[in-house]
Each structure stands twice: as C-alpha cells, then as structure tokens.
Amino acid sequence: MKDSEPSGSAPFSAETYFATQPPPPSLDHDMATVRSFVRKQTERGMKVVLVTSGGTTVPLERNMVRFLDNFSAGTRGATSAEYFIKAGYSVIFMHRQFSLQPFSRHYSHSTNPFLDLLEIEHTNTNPSSPLTAVPNITVTPSKREDLLEVLAMYKKVHHDETMLTLNFATVNDYLWMLRAISHELSLLGRSVMYYLAAAVSDFFLPSQKMSEHKIQSGKGSLHIEMDQVPKILKSIVDEWSREGFIVSFKLETDPALLLPKCRQALERYGHQVVIGNDLHRRKFEVVFVSRNGPNVTEKASNTSNNNFGAGESHLSEYWLRLGTSDASASSLQHPREIEEDIVRELERRHQLWIDAAS
Ligand code: 9Z3
Fold first, then answer.
1. Domains of the chain from N-terminus onward
2. Which of 52, 138, 199, 295 is 20 to 30 Å apart from 178, CA to CA?
C-alpha cells in the first residue's frame, strides 16, 4: 500500500519489529542455502545482485482467509534478473510466491501458454491399436528459435548455479528474509547490488492484533487499524550492508509526485539510486534519481534534464525511455524491454562504485 491517512500510533522501529514479530518457519533453511550460494560466488569472484520482485501480502487473520495485496506481477524483477545474468552477475531472486520468474516468464499461462507451443505427432496410423504407440510431442517449428534461446540460458544458469530463487508471501516474510540476506551479503562488500523492485506494503497488522480465526461478518462495517512497517531501507544502508550498491524503486500514480517522492526517499535513506516509475508508463519510462558525484558519470549527468530546485542541485535526474518503435514493438519477434537499459546503466554505475573504493 502507499500513502494513506496516518493512524496516529507510533511507528515500529526495525528493532521492535523483529523483537515482536515471528520469523517465517522456513527462514533458517532459506538462509543455509543463501550462505552456501554466497560462499560459492565469493570463491568465483562474482558480483552478486539481490533482486526482490512481486507484491507483499498483509494477512488479516492468523488462519488466513483474507489479505491485502500490493500490486506487482513481478515483470520488472523477473525481466531484470535475466539481464543481470547476461551482464555476468549471480542473482538471488527473492520473489512473491507464484509471481513471474526469470525465463519461465516468457511462457506464462496468460500471455504465452506453453501447451500452445506443442504439437502431437501421430506415428501410428493403425486405428485398431490406438494405444500401441505413444505419439511424439514436438515444438511448433515457428516457436523453436525463441524457445531454444530461453531454454539454453535457463539450462546454463542451472548448470553454472548462478541463480538462487527464494519465495515470500507476506510482508513479514519479506522483512525477515531481507534482513537475514543482507547480513550474508554484507560479506561481499562493494561487489553486491540490491535491486529492490518488490512492491512492499507500508502497513501491516502485528501478529498480536491479528484475529486467530476468520473475521466474521454480520457486525456491520469492518475497521482495521494497521501499523506502519519500519523503514527497512534505512537499516540496510546504515547497519546491515554499508558497502552495498543499493537501488530502490518508487511507484507513483500521480506524475506530479514521482520526482519529489524519489528525491525524498534518496535523502531519507542515503542509498545510491532511486528508480521512479509511474504505474501506467513503467514499461517504457523510468527516472533514476541519485546524488551527483563519482557514481554518476558524464553520460548520465549530460543526458539528465534536472528539474530540481536550487536546494536539490546535488541530485541528478536521468530519464530512460524506450523509443516509440521499441515501445510498440509487440509485433516484433523480440520487443525491446526497458529492463535491458536499466540493468546496463546500473551495471556501469555499480562498477564505478566498486572502482571508487580502490
Ligand atoms: C516498483 O516500482 C516496480 O517497478 C513495479 C513493477 C512494482 C511497478 P511489475 O512487477 O511492476 O512489472 O508489474 N516497485 C517498488 C514499489 C514500491 O512499493 N516501492 C515503495 C514505494 O514506492 C518503496 S519500497 O514507496
């Protein structure tokens, strides 16, 4: 959820949150896999990116029947993860259960159902024994080239063990996992990037206030008071992963709020980049907001169109847009995706961040 009326109760600090809210049951198991993955990538000298993707839920009951959800199909995260792999990163892909995933996203049930790729090849034409030969299943010739490309990359990633996939559902899962993963990733120093594209609820219902069973109707309207989720980004920047290159996303629906909100987030948390996107324009336009300095190179600052006031002149604004031919390229075999440009620009800035340390 995004901005709404303040409830009046004091916000949870990160410390209070983790002292009072229970960890997800799978946390220890997940962290053992993260630890071993990070160790392997360190030995190989790989850069690692944590991609968070999809929306978090806020359950209203402990035996959950109802929940609030944050909008996100997981397209941004899943698509970006593929481009990070192509750019030579190892990826921890932390995503909302059942949201889109790298590679399989190309064949999601709604856009490109995989059964439509397949054809049945009847080898036995004898009608008296229809069950004696099992027909072959083949891929429709016109779909083979695309499938082969995706499949080859998918297999390579599995073979090379360059991607680790983890699931979350609730905002509580998300917060616990992010904290624990940050601790592990902090060992990588500047080689790690955080790409926080998940749509995270600003509000939650503490477990102590949650109804045990399904909330019953029949008593008129439903009133629920939620608490504010602690500002976890601040903890990552200041405590858990001081050297990481941290990129957060800001989603707005009012275009007039996009830049001020990005700027506010950057000032508040002190990380490296905020990528702003408007809900309806997010697939072909984003804006990078960052501080001027060694991290923002000539290319970015020259192409920026800085609308900030005098007090914010230390901030740089860099718009990335797909051209009209790119954006309307759905008829092409390979429409361009803005995530390719986002990842290229971030890779460049991350390298400058790494180089700046030496
Ligand atoms: C984003 O802004 C993502 O780009 C989208 C991607 C959720 C718009 P899709 O998965 O959508 O491609 O369908 N993510 C961050 C959204 C968010 O909740 N940010 C918080 C905020 O804006 C800060 S963490 O306040």
1. 1-111+160-214+224-243 (3.40.50.10300), 262-358 (no CATH)
2. 295
